[in-house]
Amino acid sequence: MIDLQNQRTPKQTGFFMFLSKNVLYGDIGIPAGLLVGGIVSNNKEMRQNAGYVASSTAISYGFMVLIKHLVKRPRPFVQNIRITPVYRAGGTSFPSGHTSSSFATATALSAAYPKWYVIAPSFFWAGATSYSRMYLGVHYPTDVGAGIILGTGSSAAMSFLKK
C-alpha cells in the first residue's frame, strides 16, 4: 500500500476518486435502467433481470454491513501512520463495500447477459473500482478480496431470479 501511495499521480487520483465517488450510479443505475427498459419495451425477462441485479447488490450490501459491524477492522491509515489516504473514509475497513457492491452488480449483469460486450466493461468497472479503494489508501488488499468474494457470492446466491 505504501508503494501504491508513492506512485500516485494527480490524473490517476482523479480517475480513482471519480470511480469511488460514483459507484452507486452503477449499482443503482444498472438495475434501474434494466427495469425502465423492460417496462418501456414490455420485456418481462429484462424486468426480472433488473430484480436479479438489484437483489444481488442489496444482499451483498446487507452482508457487508453485518460483517463490518462484527469485524470492526480499522482503516489502513488508522493502523499504519505511514499510509496517507487521499481522503479519510469513515467507518471500518473489512470488507470493502465498494468492491462487494460493484462485483455483485457486475457478476449479476454478466450472468444475465453473457456477452463479451457486457462482461468486459462490467468487470473492468468493478475491478477498477476495487483497485481504487487500495490506491486511495482506504482499504487493505484483503478487504478488497473479501469484497470480491462477497459480491460474487451474493450474485450466485440470487441466481434463481435470473431469466
TrEMBL record:
The residues that cross the membrane are 23-40, 52-71
**Phosphatidic acid phosphatase type 2/haloperoxidase domain sequence ranges:** 50-159
Q: How does it sit in the membrane?
A: Multi-pass membrane protein
**InterPro entries this protein is in?**
PAP2/HPO (IPR000326), PAP2/HPO_sf (IPR036938)
Record Gene3D superfamilies: Phosphatidic acid phosphatase type 2/haloperoxidase
Q: What are the protein's UniProt keywords?
A: Cell membrane, Hydrolase, Membrane, Transmembrane, Transmembrane helix
Q: SMART domains in the record, alphabetically?
A: acidPPc
A molecular function (GO) term? hydrolase activity
Cellular component GO terms, alphabetical: plasma membrane
List localization entries.
Answer: Cell membrane
Name it.
Phosphatase PAP2 family protein
